[in-house]
Amino acid sequence: MTPVKSDIEIARAAAKRPIAEVGARLGIGVDDLIPYGHDKAKVSRDFIAGLGARPDGKLILVTAINPTPAGEGKTTTTVGLGDGLSRIGMKAAICIREASLGPCFGMKGGAAGGGFAQVVPMEEMNLHFTGDFHAITAAHNLLAAMIDNHVYWGNALGIDTRRIVWRRVMDMNDRALREMVVGLGGAANGFARETGFDITVASEVMAILCLAADLDDLEARLGRIVVGYTRDRQPVTCAEIGAAGAMTVLLRDALQPNLVQTLENTPAFVHGGPFANIAHGCNSLIATKTALKLADYVVTEAGFGADLGAEKFVDIKCRKGGIAPSVVVLVATVRALKMNGGVAREALGAEGVAAVRAGCANLGRHIENLRGFGVPVVVAINHFTGDTEAEIEALVDHAAELGIEAVLCTHWAEGGAGTEVLAHRVATLAQAKNDGFTLLYPDEMPLFQKIECIAKRIYRAGAVTADKSVRAQLDAWETAGHGGLPICVAKTQYSFSTDPAARGAPEGHVVHVREVRLSAGAGFVVAICGDIMTMPGLPSEPAALSIGLDAAGQVEGLF
Asked: Is the confidence at residue 437, as pLDDT, over 50?
């Protein structure tokens, strides 16, 4: 039996083309690329600014059932579908998020796809790449430093140090930094206060960069960040601190999208990486809109399952960017459906047709929700070698009962060749006339009603509860002019409910909103439901234990 190559071995053997050739496939000239070596580049802002009059291509959204430890392969499917569209003669491009160092060295691993459906250069993408995350970290922490400096030098704005809400960030998992006290050591070090660190992908600066239209919009959004409150509860903004201009300088190059390629040389824009819980979990709007001007088909993805990722993609990214998907691809695996049907992870190797049928309740719920957005849906079955024909047939039959086609995809093992059937189906659906796209709720709906709308229509909650202080805060934000903002719900990705153990398709549960946060710069209100961490910790055996350099100085252990 031929040993299976690791993702990094496959990526290292890729026949990459010079990045100028990749750009040329989309009509990007050499002078419009800012190269970072021979295989990656940024697309210049002047080139992007000149694309406005061009028509848009078709946007394909890849989402998934609720994630399980068995794996779903959403990014792998996104890459495989992009390659499949290229193989059938379509001018295609891919748009995905950048990888955070935290998951790379923690438990989840990288974010470049897998097997023979990867974006390369895999090592650079999963490490420092073009420095975007470092720029975001620096800009975020510059603001934090300027807040404490403002207080130290007299506090002219009257900031209540107990109500500074702007924490610091770093792009690594480190539970020891979640809660801390700064300013110790005497008067020279400022005022002692409680604060902490979040991971960089949870920064509002990250969300802002991924929603900003250009540098002017970026600076305006940064200026609207609420960093804290005065003693009489009046908000203090980044603009009042005076940091927006300097932050924009640090982010100037980071705002330009990154262009790389797949193993099969399909152009790929890899840009931005907001958390799919505390933020909207999509790649940058500027990268997606640029790709739509350059390609006939643009395949992108949304974080976590469709209850979080697809809903936020529609109600935040599409709402803010004036875009709409032509087709939604819902990724499912037999293994994940068996877990949703009650099978333990260690028992997934045994055939379980009944468990697949039971787990299809989760698939069906997502299909119902996605249809509510008025967009055609097709299911992509991400094939694993242990899947049996009877299990696959059960999945296909269930989708068919709902009027949805489920297509078996073997892109992990075969690359774009394994998604040609899916690519043909997606192209057909995308070309059909469809004017039914709709948002879940209107801008003018009150904030708490928006939360209820998401919880009841998408999560199938029976009730939504919140303390008086939460409701009062939402009322205050509406009075201050923030009532038209969309909602970004932060909850577990593993379930429709706020209980990560409640797999399948729970309904009638209670969603309790324990906290709300205003992301005035990004332009949404975060509703925190359940236990959500904005600074993850490392597992008992982090991936970092297996990562190192071999005798030739090449990276080993990344996945």
From this structure: yes
> Quick check: 340 and 503 in contact, CB under 8 A?
yes
DSSP string, 268-334: EEE-----TTTS--B--HHHHHHHHHH-SEEEEEBSSSTTTHHHHIIIIIIHHHT---SEEEEEE-H
Tokens encoding 448: 């708490």
Alpha helix positions (H), 153-214: 204-211
Burial profile 266-298: b = 16 or more Cβ within 10 angstroms, e = fewer: bbbbbbbbbbbbbbbbbbbbbbbbbbbbbbbbb
344 and 393 Cβ atoms separated by less than 8 Å: no
* Distance in angstroms (rounded) separating the CA atoms of residues 277 and 488: 8
- In the set 16, 45, 58, 97, the catalytic residue is 97
Q: Is 105 part of the annotated catalytic residue set?
A: no
Is 166 an active-site residue?
no
Cα three-residue angle 346-115-415, rounded to 5 degrees: 125
- Cα–Cα distance, 242 to 165 (Å, whole number): 17
* Residues 413, 60: Cα–Cα separation, whole Å: 22
- Of the candidates 384, 448, 477, 524, the residue annotated as catalytic is 384
Q: How far apart are the first and last CA of the chain?
A: 22
Res 372 pLDDT > 70: yes
- Of the residues 47, 313, 412, 448, only one is catalytic, namely 412
Q: Which helix (H) or strand (E) holds 360?
A: helix 353-371
Give the pLDDT score at 1.
43
Is 384 designated active site? Answer: yes
Active-site annotation holder among 12, 17, 91, 108: 108
Strands (E), 472-509: 487-490
Model confidence pLDDT, tens digit, residues 479-489: 999 999 999 99
Question: Of 76, 130, 288, 419, which residue is the catalytic one?
Answer: 76
313 is catalytic: no
Mean pLDDT across the chain, nearest whole number? 95
Among 25, 42, 45, 74, the active-site one is 74
**Cis peptide upstream of residue 67 (ω within 30 degrees of 0):** no
42, 33 Cβ separation under 8 angstroms: yes
- Computed from CA positions of residues 96, 101, 103, 105, in that sequence, does the dihedral angle turn out positive or negative? positive
What's the rounded Cα separation, in Å, for the pair 546 and 555? 10
- Of the candidates 379, 424, 359, the residue with the CA atom closest to the CA atom of residue 62: 379
pTM value is 0.95
Query: Per the structure block, which two tokens stand in for 69?
Result: 């430890």
State yes or no: is 76 an active-site residue: yes
Host H or E run for residue 36: none
Report pLDDT digits (tens) over 476-531: 999 999 999 999 999 999 999 999 999 999 999 999 999 999 999 999 999 999 88
Q: How many other CB atoms sit within 10 Å of the CB of residue 3?
A: 6
Neighbour count for residue 89 (Cβ, 10 Å)? 9
pLDDT for 48 equals 98
Give residue 220's pLDDT band: very low, low, confident or very high (50, 70, 90). very high
Q: Which residue has the tokens 């927006």?
A: 244
Catalytic residue among 11, 14, 93, 276: 276
H or E segment and range at residue 83: helix 74-87
275 classed as catalytic: no
